[in-house]
Amino acid sequence: MHVSLNWLKDYLEISGSPESIADELTRLGLEATYQSTGISFTDVVVGKVLECGKHPNADKLFLCEVDIGDGEIHTIVCGAPNVKKGIHVPVAKVGATMLSGELKIKKTKLRG
């Protein structure tokens, strides 16, 4: 049976790391392991799409001007068909990591 640590915390006063809690439960006779299934990314913020238009060199890409709250307007190439002016979107900033560090976002040119 899978039980969420957050669910246990709703019913019990629990302290310690998830690994130590799993070890203690096992010592009590309840076989337990710890598995993290949470979100694994860094430097992802909410941005507002200020302008959005078709990419001049691609049929399915959009050029978006996005405000992420850092005082600059960022030009981002996007492939989402539902992007439009005025919506709020998640933005992975340059240097952000995804999938526990397996993918790193970098600044690059795309189709000019």
Give a quick summary of the entry:
This protein has 112 residues and is α+β, with helices and mostly antiparallel strands. It has two helices and six strands.
Helix and strand arrangement:
Layout lengths: L4 H7 L6 H10 L16 E11 L7 E6 L5 E6 L9 E5 L4 E2 L4 E2 L8
Antiparallel strand pairs: 1-2, 1-4, 2-3, 5-6
Describe the structure.
The model has no long low-confidence stretch (mean pLDDT 87). Helix content is 15%, strand content 29%. A 4-stranded antiparallel β-sheet has the order 3-2-1-4, with no helix packed on it. It has helices at 5-11, 18-27; strands at 44-54, 62-67, 73-78, 88-92, 97-98, 103-104. By secondary structure, the chain is an alpha+beta fold. β2 and β3 (73-78) form a beta hairpin.
Mean pLDDT: 87
General form: elongated
The main β sheet shows up as:
4 strands, antiparallel
Helical coverage, percent range = 10-25%
What is the rounded distance between the termini?
52 Å
Helical stretch tally: 2
User: Structural class, from helix and strand content?
Assistant: alpha+beta
Number of beta-strand segments: 6
Q: What percent strand?
A: 25-35%
- How are the strands ordered across the major sheet? 3-2-1-4
**Secondary-structure element order, N to C:** HHEEEEEE
Runs in which pLDDT lies below 50 for 5 or more consecutive residues are none
Radius of gyration: 21 Å
